[in-house]
Amino acid sequence: MRMTSTVVGALACQLDSYLTTFDTTVVSCRAVQVAAPATATKSGKKGKTGGAKEAEAPAVAPTVSAATEYELELQDTILFPEGGGQPSDHGIIATDSGSLPVLAIRRAVLTALHKVATPLAPETKVTLTVDWKRRFDHMQQHSGQHLISAILDTMEIPTLAWNLGEKVSYVEIARKLSDAEVQIVEDRCNDVIRQGVDIWVEVPDKDLVKKDKLPDDYDAERGILRVVHIGNLDSNPCCGTHLKNTKEMNAISLLHQVPIRGTNSRLYFLIGDRVRAYTKELHALTRSLNAKLSCQTEEIEPKISRLETQLKETVKREKQWTTEVAQTEATRVRAELTERKKSLVYRAELTGLDYFNLFMNELGKLEPGAGVIVMASGAPKTAGALVVIGDAADVVAGNIRDAGIISTLKGGGKGAKWQGKVALWEKGEPEALTAFFETL
Ligand SMILES: [Zn+2]
Questions:
Q1: Span from the CA of 196 to the centroid of ligand 1 (angstroms)
Q2: Domain that includes residue 268, residue range
Q3: What confidence category does residue 60 fall into, taking pLDDT thresholds of 50, 70 and 90?
Q4: Ligand 1 centroid, distance to 27 Cα (angstroms)
Q5: CB 392 within 8 A of CB 372
Q6: Is residue 319 part of a domain?
Q7: Total domain count for the chain?
């Protein structure tokens, strides 16, 4: 007779969310194809590995290869499948012959399926271990979200959605809270944490549970409907794993809000160990800013404002100076053209084209027969640019390129203007360009 597995709603992790290891048995193992990239090669017939007698890959197009993963159904589990806004657990499935990491568990109607890389035969005895640090963090965020939403409910602000993020989480509410309201919610949440209010799960008569919050694909008839209580403050249908007492939340810190979907607002929060982790991270950042800016924390903001003002002034001044240099250089180049019909403008300290555009603006139109101007920016180990204008500019640039004077030169143009980029100047190349220019 085929073994059966426990339905999602009554999993061991849902009955006792504090179990960290658990012995159970494999009920079934099914191969699943993971979509392969378009470059996949033809797949041959792969021999079945292990003893997974039930493992049969669904039919796939013979020309498409796909990686195979396996979904294990276990008699019961302490690895929570994704649900109720709570992400899937991580864990280990150990057998006599080794252990397999589990990084995803999903709910298929009422069954929890554990994704693994290697098949296990039905009836294999296994020991599960949950990644407790990750799970306890999820319990803190999830129970804490219930508490935040309960306090918001007392202010007639219903929670429309929530998200448990990698670093920060949020509740979505119908309007933005004022700063004073955020403070009130945070204070009241932390009051409840200090009071040490019990949290427990009840499985009431199905008719008494509101079904509107159930996922569409949950079988309410055969499944288990759970209600999570926080003292007499809150009762909420939920499948998640929860703390036993609000004390375990340690602290709730409400952060910023972000507008979403018109007038809705996402209120971001941190709970429990995340508050400490964030404090450490911010403190390290502050210390680094103290060192970089050589100032105390309260001086960081005024100091950055002063630096911004200084930068604006510097940029303005640089523009004035650059324009003056371009004017002077244009005058010099004009004189040189009259004398030699050629001129070289080389700027080792620059890497782009901006200055040359300014220079050409100051130079004005170059009449045919006036000569050729070679402009280059950049120095060895930096990027740069090359612009050639004037008589037979394209031929001159073509000669520079064909002679391999600048090995990483790329560009184009025809007639009186050619421009290109130098990915990286090599040692000796600026000198080689100058020498080439003299031969023109
Ligand atoms: Zn919940």
A1: 19
A2: 135-291
A3: very low
A4: 28
A5: yes
A6: no
A7: 3
